[in-house]
Amino acid sequence: MTAAVLEIDDALAQYDPVMGLEVHVELNTRSKMFCGCPTEFGAPPNTQTCPVCLGLPGALPVVNARAVESAIKIGLALNCEIAEWCRFARKNYFYPDMPKNFQTSQYDEPIAYNGWTEVVVDGETYRIEIERAHMEEDTGKSTHVGGATGRIHGASHSLVDYNRAGIPLIEIVTKTIEVPGDKAAAVAKAYVSMLRDLLLALGVSDVRMDQGSLRCDANVSLKPTGSATFGTRTETKNVNSFRSVERAVTYEITRQAAVLASGGKVVQETRHWHEDTGITTSGREKSDAEDYRYFPEPDLVPVAPSREWVEEIRSSLPEAPTLRRVRLQEEWGFTDLEMRDVVNGNALEPIVATVELGVTPTAAKKWWLGELARAANESGQELNALGVGPAEVAEVQKLVDAGSLNDKLARQVFDGLIKGEGTPAEIMAKRGLALVSDDSALIEAIDRAIAANPDVVEKVNSGKPAAAGALIGAVMKDMRGQADAAKVRELLNAKLGI
Ligand SMILES: [Zn+2]
């Protein structure tokens, strides 16, 4: 049954949303959090397991130092304090995809806490406080077979794959986020998108939302406009795209508003997000005092990163992506709109690499956004899958700068590059694209244009030099576009005595 919802504007006229976002990031370490099993995605089920990640009696876990380093990197990049000493804890609950019957996590002693970050939405900057970032292990993966929905209800049997059990996870938890209601969903989306960029820049995760290596749980509650008392929240689990985060938050605002406006009570529960229909449905009820019987993990030594190590990691952090964008925009002299086009077109990194090869930012943007993004769009491909890299773009631009190509011919070279016809030089040779630099050939074409257009020549001679433009057009046409227009103008002007 589909729940009643209010229009978003009506919902926001009566209620203020309050959010909390929990993001799980799978780290890209080669081995698991507490054992040496490989973490590669897509291996046949249950081929990447051992006694430790299967929770067999007597197996002893050992902490993956690289995962701790990644956790510290993430914490520092989110302006967190890094614990001088912290422990893992057992979170006890039974779930068939968790072979140990507890998840090794962190409870009251997270490795990173008290941080903050910022996101920009519609030109406004919003500060988001970070409660904590803690280390834990992923669970296995259940597949429910035989039902219509792929969920456990209605399934005839279930399969479980423990390859994912024990893969290092970092859970990043925000404090309460209160922003203007009409910005809430966009801020949630911008936050997850910013995290993705940040994690990618840190090199700690491959952040593939489609493979579940970055997933977001969105807590949403409503309170009557102006009220200081928080309402009951729901937690929509495992939302796995930026757009879905925005849609799920919007949906929960409209659904909860309808419940409250009709005098009902919001149930505190987890909810499932349905990508296809854009709605959430009830999961399981969840109380605040759910008893996981947390206690410190007795099989693992505490994690006590030395201050020297933390400072060493801090000094190795790359520039934050948001700040880097601001810096590049300033250096390149792009407008906000141009920069947004570049970022949305996934052309930022290619342009950076092309500029590093000596091409001006404007020329790099022209080719990447104009020619190549259009071609990628037309063929439904990613920009980086076209087979044209920064080196080719720089090579073509050098040919333009040297006067061997004009922009129009360069476009044909790009077309050849996309079609795999060889290097720019080979394509020019095969397609006969070089500009005619031989003055005598140009002068012959100019003579032909003058002879064919006596009326234009008369206009020029009677004091209308602008009319010569028609002659340049005729020469370019005669040369099949393979002439440098500036050179033609220069020779023509000399000929006509302008
Ligand atoms: Zn293992």
From TrEMBL:
Coiled coil (residue ranges): none
InterPro entries: Asn/Gln-tRNA_amidoTrfase_suB/E, Asn/Gln-tRNA_Trfase_suB/E_cat, Asn/Gln_amidotransferase, Asn/Gln_tRNA_amidoTrase-B-like, GatB, GatB_Yqey_C_2, Gln_synth/guanido_kin_cat_dom
Keyword Electron transport on entry: no
A GO term for molecular function: asparaginyl-tRNA synthase (glutamine-hydrolyzing) activity
Principal EC category: ligase
Quaternary state and interactors: Heterotrimer of A, B and C subunits.
HAMAP family, A to Z: GatB (MF_00121)
Function noted in UniProt: Allows the formation of correctly charged Asn-tRNA(Asn) or Gln-tRNA(Gln) through the transamidation of misacylated Asp-tRNA(Asn) or Glu-tRNA(Gln) in organisms which lack either or both of asparaginyl-tRNA or glutaminyl-tRNA synthetases. The reaction takes place in the presence of glutamine and ATP through an activated phospho-Asp-tRNA(Asn) or phospho-Glu-tRNA(Gln).
UniProt name for this protein: Aspartyl/glutamyl-tRNA(Asn/Gln) amidotransferase subunit B
Organism: Kribbella antiqua
